[in-house]
Amino acid sequence: MSSPLSFPVSCHSTCCFIDCQLYQFHYINENKTWTEAQQYCRENHTDLATVTNMKDMKRLINISAGYQREAWIGLNSKPEFNRTWFWSLSGAEFNESETNWKEGEPTDRGIKGSENCGIVYQDLRWGDQGCHWNESFLCYDEEKTWLKAQSYCREKHTDLISGTKQLQDGEVKKLMDFTNSKAYFGLFRDNCRWSDGNSFSFRHWNNDFNNPESNNKVILIKENKTWEEALTYCRGHHHDLVTITNMEDQIWIQEKVKNASTPFVWIGLHYIWSLRFWVWVSDEEVSYENWASPGQTDDCDVFGTMETGGEHKWLEKKGSQTFNFICSKY
């Protein structure tokens, strides 16, 4: 059918979006939430775009070239979606009865939900591992992260090895004899679904998504302080109150705030009452917005917060209130 710009996003912010008809993609240069974009595409075309392979991916990049803005696609994740294993190669169906897990695997050790990529050992038994580690992979013998390994294989060959038939090939055993002990293969899991109901497993995530290095740029402080106190704390102990300039920032910051002990957390937004506009403490322009309601107010003592639950929208709060807060480390 068709496909999307592969980028995992919250479905509640507003941005441009991509939809599709049979073998066609259309860039809709309007600001809508994911749900509004889905409704628009279904009413005027077919659905939000679904991607099935790198060829579709390149077509999407071409039609969106020049816009330099994020755009919604048909991939979405909801709390009721369980994490499911997929093969990297679209069309290779994952069958739980044909797995070859090492004893005790998958372990899902560490941070809950962090081991989402498949690793194969020298005995061809499987394990799960965090996707950010550098490992050899079945396609080439250079160590890379799972995402980089997938990208390399798709560019130079077809994909990471996917499906039990490929893994049972005698050549795989010969290749594994030359590795240190284990290598990435095409097994991964997530809890995302396509809007049009397709089960295509193709993903092309931005490298910062679920990247611990990105998540380490910010820190949640579980102390209750006023906005001014939070600002002073961040500047004294870290760098500053956090600035959010795009959806990528929003996504990995909202994962942090889920562990807060208050219903809202302070972020680095403050309102310039005399000029009637919001600014970031970092002096960054407020180009990306995620307000629960338009951020206009006649109050001179309000600052920005993010919800710690629900849709993680931004809301204005009186500066005298006390909440947890998010600091940027650099």
Structural overview:
The N terminus is likely disordered. Helix content is 21%, strand content 29%. The protein is an alpha+beta fold. Strands 13, 14, 15, 16, 17, 18 and 19 form a seven-stranded mixed beta sheet that branches. Strands 6, 7, 8, 9, 10 and 11 form a six-stranded mixed beta sheet that branches. Strands 1, 2, 3 and 4 form a four-stranded mixed beta sheet that branches. It folds into three domains: 62 residues, no CATH class; 108 residues, no CATH class; 113 residues, Mannose-Binding Protein A, subunit A (Mannose-Binding Protein A, Chain A). The protein contains eight helices and 19 strands.
Strand runs, count: 19
CATH architecture tag of the largest domain: Roll
| Major sheet details | 7 strands, mixed
Over the alpha carbons, how many angstroms does the gyration radius reach?
22 Å
CATH class membership of the largest domain: Alpha Beta
Averaged pLDDT = 76
Basic shape = globular
| Helical/strand content category | alpha+beta
Poorly predicted sequence stretches spanning 5 or more consecutive residues: 1-12
In the CATH scheme, what's the topology name of the largest domain? Mannose-Binding Protein A, Chain A
**CATH level-4 homologous superfamily of the largest domain:** Mannose-Binding Protein A, subunit A
Give the helix tally: 8
Chain oligomer state: single chain
Number of domains: 3
Helix content: 10-25%
